[in-house]
Every structure is written in structure tokens, then in C-alpha cells.
Amino acid sequence: xxxxxxxxxxxxxxxxxxxxxxxxxxxxxxxxxxxxxxxxxxxxxxxxxxxxxxxxxxxxxxxxxxxxxxxxxxxxxxxxxxxxxxxxxxxxxxxxxxxxxxxxxxxxxxxxxxxxxxxxxxxxxxxxxxxxxxxxxxxxxxxxxxxxxxxxxxxxxxxxxxxxxxxxxxxxxxxxxxxxxxxxxxxxxxxxxxxxxxxxxxxxxxxxxxxxxxxxxxxxxxxxxxxxxxxxxxxxxxxxxxxxxxxxxxxxxxxxxxxxxxxxxxxxxxxxxx
Length: 274
Fold this sequence. Notes:
By secondary structure, the chain is of the alpha/beta class. It has helices spanning 24-36, 57-67, 84-90, 132-144, 164-167, 175-183; strands spanning 2-6, 44-48, 74-77, 106-108, 114-117, 128-129, 150-153, 171-173, 188-193, 200-204, 207-211, 218-219, 231-232, 237-244, 248-255. It has a six-stranded mixed β-sheet with strand order 4-5-7-9-11-10. It has a five-stranded mixed β-sheet with strand order 3-2-1-14-15, with no helix packed on it. The mean pLDDT is 97.
């Protein structure tokens, strides 16, 4: 099973550029083309939040059009820039968005790897939280199948990164209690997240947490305590999570864009497609 994770798409109203310079819609279009051009296409795509920038119907309509060429199932999650009700209205056929009446939390059971999505959204705020209700729901779902390989998905990573301005709007409530739940379930193969616009990994409460980079702009890597909020146009990328029962979960970073190659080591010609 091959899972593509895209995150922090930040589609703007009327396709306006972010910060006046970044054509985020075009970057998402490039990500879709990249997925379609893969020699082995992913079985599913997961978008781990900040799908749009203001949570407006106009933005979700643009996102819907951009994602439409993808033939595989696409699972959407809210980030701090999203709006639950507007997201649900923009994708009415995505029934999983309504598994929970309040939060966008859901379980996908159809695949070899069980997928559980958590909602960390705090409306109107940049930071995230996991309240008692959301965590109790997670504990209940994990207890249903404690031996089945599972991936847990959320927007805000549950750990401090050292990027100070991002840590100030991280998962400010519920991370410790989430960690206690995760530690009780060794069947959790991976926790995946977004929000940070950078590839970051940590071993956390017995499992690996991996954060995917943005399909567009990245957060500048500045580990000073007083480092200013800034973005950098490093290459956009996505994560590919390859689940094989005999190996486990292997994650690859796939850069989006036009680069020379690939070339065969023998003969120097291009790698044939198909």
C-alpha cells in the first residue's frame, strides 16, 4: 500500500498569491501532476491540513478543481487555516468528513494499514489542541483493534521543534495526554503531521512522528530562540509512505519540480516509463 501525503497547500481566494509572491494554487497543480506521473501511483492521497488559507467556499472550490484529476481516493483533514463546515460543504461526497458530528475525526478501515485522523483545529487560532473528548475518541478507536497496524494523522505535530515561532503555535494543549495514549498502543506504526512546512522526524512515546514539507513554501530553518517568522522557497515536496507487512512502513521524500534525469547508470539514457 502506497500513501502519498501532501500538506499545507494554502489555496488563496481567487487564486491570489500568498504574501503577494507565492502562487500556491500552481504549486498544488504541480503536486497533482507529480503524483499522476509517478511510475507507481499511490493508492491513496492524504492532505494533512491547511488545505486553504481563509476557510472560504471560494478557496475550497478551487482546491476541488485542482484535485479532480487524481483517480485515487483523497482524504482531507483540517488545519488551523481551515473551516470545518465549509470544508464539508465543499466536498459533500466525502462522507468520512462527517463520521463525527463535531470534529473532523475519522477512521478508514478499507486498507491493510488502518488510518485514524485527529482534528487539532481551534477556530480562529494558529495553535492546535486535543481536548478530552477528542482524545477519548482516539483511545476508543485504538482499543477496538489494538493489534492492527495503524497510522495516526493530525495537522499540528505533538512535539517542540526548536523553531521558536512555530512552537508558539504548535499543539499547545493535549500533547502530553496524546503521548500517554500512544505509548499504550505499540501497533501505531507512525504519526504523520503537517503545519511546520518542513520535513522533521522524532521518536516520540514509542513511535516515529514524521512531518511532511509543504507543496509550496517552506518555513525557514532557524533554530535561534529569537528567530523571526520567515519562509523560504526551498523545493516543494511530499511524503510517500510505503506499507508492506513484511517490512513495515517506509517513508520517502519526493521532490516536486523539473530536475535533470532520471538517467540509467548503465548507458546514461533516460529511465523508460511504464
